[in-house]
Design goal:
Layout lengths: L1 E5 L5 E5 L11 E9 L2 H7 L10 E2 L3 E9 L11 E4 L2 E2 L5 H4 L13 H8 L5 E2 L16 E4 L7 E2 L6 H4 L5 H10 L8 E5 L3 H12 L4 E6 L2 H9 L3 E4 L5 H8 L5 E6 L12 H11 L8 H8 E9 L12 H6 L3 E4 L4 H13 L11 E3 L4 H9 L8 E3 L2
Parallel strand pairs: 11-12, 11-14, 12-13, 14-15, 15-16, 17-18
Antiparallel strand pairs: 1-2, 1-4, 3-5, 3-9, 3-18, 5-6, 6-10, 7-8
The structure holds nicotinamide-adenine-dinucleotide and zinc ion (2 copies).
One zinc ion binds next to loops.
Cofactor: Zn(2+)
GO molecular function, one term: oxidoreductase activity
InterPro entries: ADH-like_C, ADH-like_N, ER, GroES-like_sf, NAD(P)-bd_dom_sf
Length: 389
């Protein structure tokens, strides 16, 4: 079959790899009908995630048609149309039983190695390094889904692939980001990053009762899309983010701040205007300002900082003094996708949200290597790429 494979920093190829096979009784094989490139894939493209091997099949936003099921899988049958969560979860362990699917303690075969780095292992993920299991991803013609009687959700007739696809990751992730803010109605939520995840966080914050959303980025098309969803926007290269948020909140700060950026190796500058203030305020003497620091500073006393942007490793110079003195709450996670799927599927069915709004590029797998670059460099108005193998 054809698949997108990783060969090192900025080196993604579309090539032939062996077809996946059923390996366990609960597996299923799906024929991929649509898949997407995620901002998390860009961390692999940028070479900042450890433990990738040359030839690894990429991709964790996938849906398709079931073509084979393992002998013990009673939940799926050949012909079912399903969306596959990016988190691989057994459904039975301590964490899965409590709805913390992305903490599954059984699905990562390399858990011991992961625990050496992180203390404990999170769940296995598709197409996301050997530290997270080395599972082949779904930017491919076929995908083996482990624990396929737990993860995949059936797509109702009448719902298109493009409407359903983002249930695999970015819709639940944006929704979780807003859910973490514990909104009661009437709040101001500031969101850093208007990539696909930020866009779903904006829509979700409004769905959950926010009165105002302030969206921060610098890419014109992304700011435009944020405004179309009702957000007030700040271009961080042209405006002082802290001052503008102060102005908008009577000097109090935003009720909740969402980091939908995470590791940004190439664009972690652009905060010159506030570097000095952050230096003074936190005594850290750093020359590298950061989204998370800005989110902490811009959050009101006793507000919430919700982090869904992915960080690969250690992160220094976080102003914990500010957070503790002002009573901030921190929430963060790899999304336990399965936990959110039923309610988000229902919201799409009811017409509360049409997830296709974020798609700017439709392509084939062969176009994938070029589109990784287009998406990373934010060329050609690119916000979300969907590929149809
Ligand atoms: P993306 O790279 O398309 O979007 C990131 C956006 O942040 C870009 O538009 C960029 O211009 C903007 N940005 C960069 N520096 C900024 C700054 N200083 N201030 C404000 N905005 C800035 O990626 P995406 O697909 O939207 O994903 C966003 C993040 O979410 C990534 O880190 C990704 O790994 C992560 N993610 C996490 C989960 C999860 O389970 N927690 C799931 C999916 C994605
Ligand atoms: Zn993702
Ligand atoms: Zn589990």
């Amino acid at each position: 079959m054809k698949a997108l494979t990783w060969h090192g920093k900025s080196d993604i190829r579309c090539e032939s790899v062996p077809d996946p096979k059923i390996e366990h009784g609960r597996d299923a094989i799906i024929r991929v009908t649509a898949c997407a490139i995620c901002g998390s894939d860009l961390h692999l493209f940028d070479g900042v995630m450890p433990s990738m091997k040359s030839g690894d099949v990429l991709g964790h936003e996938t849906m398709g048609e079931v073509v084979e099921v393992g002998a013990d899988n009673k939940a799926l049958k050949v012909g079912d149309r399903v969306v596959v969560p990016f988190t691989i979860s057994c459904g039975e362990c301590f964490f899965c039983k409590r709805g913390f699917y992305s903490g599954c303690e059984r699905s990562n075969p390399n858990a011991e190695q992961a625990a050496k780095l992180w203390g404990h292992s999170p769940a296995g993920l598709f197409g996301y390094s050997h530290l997270l299991g080395g599972f082949a991803g779904g930017q491919a013609e076929y995908l083996r889904v482990p624990y396929a009687d737990v993860g995949p959700i059936k797509v109702p007739d009448g719902m298109t692939d493009e409407q359903a696809l983002f249930l695999s990751d970015i819709f639940p992730t944006g929704f979780m980001a807003a859910d973490f803010c514990n909104l009661k109605g009437g709040e101001t939520v500031a969101i850093w990053g208007c990539g696909p995840v930020g866009q779903f966080a904006i829509k979700s914050a409004f769905l959950l009762g926010a009165e105002r959303v302030i969206a921060i980025d610098t890419v014109p098309e992304r700011l435009e899309m944020a405004r179309a969803s009702g957000a007030i926007t700040i271009d961080f290269r042209n405006e002082d983010v802290y001052d503008r948020i102060q102005d908008l909140t009577h000097g109090r700060g935003a009720d909740a701040c969402i980091d939908a950026v995470g590791t940004e190796p190439d664009t972690a500058s652009g905060f010159d205007a506030i570097v000095d203030r952050i230096k003074v305020a936190t005594f850290m003497g750093t020359d590298r300002p950061h989204v998370l620091r800005q989110a902490i500073h811009c959050c009101r006393n006793f507000g919430t900082v919700s982090i869904v942007g992915v960080y690969g490793g250690l992160l220094d110079n976080i102003p914990m003094g500010s957070a503790i003195n002002r009573g901030l709450t921190f929430r963060m996670a790899q999304t336990p996708v399965q936990h959110y799927l039923p309610q988000l599927l229902a919201r799409i069915e009811k017409g509360e949200i049409d997830p296709t709004f974020v798609i700017t590029h439709r392509a084939t797998l062969e176009d994938g290597p070029e589109l990784y670059k287009t998406f990373r460099d934010k060329q050609d108005g690119c916000i979300k790429v969907v590929m149809k193998p």
